[in-house]
């Protein structure tokens, strides 16, 4: 996924052309003139990775706050931006997976350029997320059980496990879960709408996990024909 490559991959070779040009501009480790010394090449590479580490640190801080803040994508992007600014304001920023970095040694324009690219890439990943086909899994003998993933650029953002009983006309969502990076992005709504689209003749319920996300289900069922209430055994075949 592009956002992951921008924040974690030290190489520009795997990036799309536009982003690759920016990343080479950050620290042109490739296509440098022969006159550039080895020391300068190494220094530019280190500075590029320091920029990457700072933007990544700010991103991970915003992700860690999601469980309590529950920010939708625009608010998440602003929180991420604020954390970048906070790190740049420090004389010495200690980055968890890098060490101390002097903000004065970094080009703030490159920092903000990388933030903008990565932030847009995150939004693109959300907007282009799709549901993979359902795959059969073994869980019980009386009902059919399936799983599918929500993907973006081929990378899994979350998974859904559900069962159906066609004889009683009910479906049961066993579990829905997303990586911390991708919570509160509207992907849960995408997952539930896929269940209803794939099995339109069923009435849908969920398990006791409803208690952990009651507000989400309350909002979703306002536009759904299914109750989406907590019923671990909506029919005897699920027992």
Describe the protein in words.
- The chain has 239 residues and is α+β, with helices and mostly antiparallel strands.
- The chain folds into two domains: 2-127, no CATH class; 130-238, Aminopeptidase.
- Helix content is 44%, strand content 18%.
- The chain contains eight helices and eight strands.
- The strands form two sheets. Strands 3, 4, 5, 6, 7 and 8 form a six-stranded mixed sheet that branches. A two-stranded antiparallel sheet has the order 1-2.
- Helix 1 packs antiparallel against helix 6, helix 3 packs across helix 5 and helix 3 (38-64) crosses helix 6.
- The longest helix is centred in the first third of the chain and has 27 residues, at 38-64.
- It is elongated.
Q: Please state roughly what percent of the residues sit in beta strands, choosing from under 5%, 5-15%, 15-25%, 25-35%, 35-45% or over 45%.
A: 15-25%
Radius of gyration: 23 Å
Overall mean confidence score, pLDDT: 86
Number of strand elements: 8
Uncertain parts? 27-32
Helix and strand succession? HHHHHEEHEEEEEHEH
Summarize the amount of helix as a percent range: 40-55%
Taken together, the total number of domains comes to 2
Largest sheet: 6 strands, mixed
How far apart are the first and last residues' alpha carbons, in Å? 40 Å
What structural category do the secondary elements indicate? alpha+beta
Count of helix runs: 8
Shape, per Cα inertia axes: elongated
């Amino acid at each position: 996924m592009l956002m992951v490559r921008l924040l974690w991959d030290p190489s520009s070779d795997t990036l799309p052309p536009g982003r690759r040009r920016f990343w080479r501009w950050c620290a042109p480790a490739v296509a440098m003139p022969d006159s550039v010394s080895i020391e300068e090449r190494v220094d530019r590479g280190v500075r590029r990775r320091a920029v990457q580490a700072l933007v990544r640190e700010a991103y991970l801080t915003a992700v860690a706050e999601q469980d309590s803040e529950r920010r939708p994508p625009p608010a998440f992007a602003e929180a991420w931006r604020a954390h970048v600014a906070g790190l740049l304001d420090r004389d010495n920023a200690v980055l968890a997976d890098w060490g101390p970095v002097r903000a004065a040694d970094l080009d703030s324009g490159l920092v903000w350029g990388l933030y903008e690219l990565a932030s847009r890439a995150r939004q693109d990943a959300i907007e282009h997320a799709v549901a993979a086909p359902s795959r059969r899994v073994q869980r019980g003998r009386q009902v059919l059980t399936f799983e599918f993933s929500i993907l973006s650029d081929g990378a899994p953002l979350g998974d859904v496990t559900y069962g159906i009983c066609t004889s009683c006309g009910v479906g049961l969502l066993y579990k829905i879960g997303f990586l911390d990076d991708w919570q509160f992005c509207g992907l849960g709504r995408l997952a539930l709408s896929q269940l209803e689209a794939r099995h339109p003749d069923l009435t849908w319920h969920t398990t006791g996990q409803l208690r952990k996300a009651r507000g989400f289900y309350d909002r979703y069922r306002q536009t759904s024909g299914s109750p989406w209430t907590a019923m671990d055994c909506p029919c005897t075949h699920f027992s």
